[in-house]
Design a protein that fits this description.
8 strands; 23% strand; 3 helices; 134 residues; alpha+beta
Length: 134
């Protein structure tokens, strides 16, 4: 499992469907402000991430949410952390779009986190039951 986690930035991205509002996406079309889940019947649809007004990611397997980091699914952690925010006290702006010169970095990171999460869940499910000492 360590290979998946250490090399998460180079693993093959999971093939999510990119529902683009434009025929040809420009670099600015990949800017993120705050990602949210899609909606179905008024409830969050975790198989869909509304990345921004130009891009929706679809086809996220619900099993990917089984990999949890610090009490939260890794994918939700990424959605929360990769949002533009400004700290009220200091005025410091968190601008994830500036963290890479690759405009697709965050989109591809999400796809890679889905892959790593699925593989982690698969590996953990295959482990033998823990034999606790009495």
């Amino acid at each position: 499992m360590g290979e998946w986690h250490l090399n998460y930035e180079t693993v093959e991205p999971y093939p999510l469907t990119e529902d683009c509002k434009r025929l040809v996406m420009e670099p600015g079309d990949y800017r993120v402000t705050k990602m949210v889940f899609g909606k179905q019947d008024g409830k969050p649809d975790k198989t869909v991430i509304v990345y921004n007004p130009q891009l929706i990611l679809r086809g996220i397997p619900l099993e990917a949410y089984g990999y949890v980091v610090n009490g939260k699914p890794a994918l939700e952690w990424i959605m929360e952390r990769y949002a533009v925010t400004t700290d009220k006290a200091s005025g410091i702006k968190n601008e994830p779009n500036a963290w890479s010169d690759d405009p697709r970095y965050i989109v591809d990171l999400i796809k890679r986190i889905v892959r790593v999460s699925l593989e982690s869940v698969r590996i953990v499910a295959g482990l033998p039951a823990l034999q606790e000492a009495k």
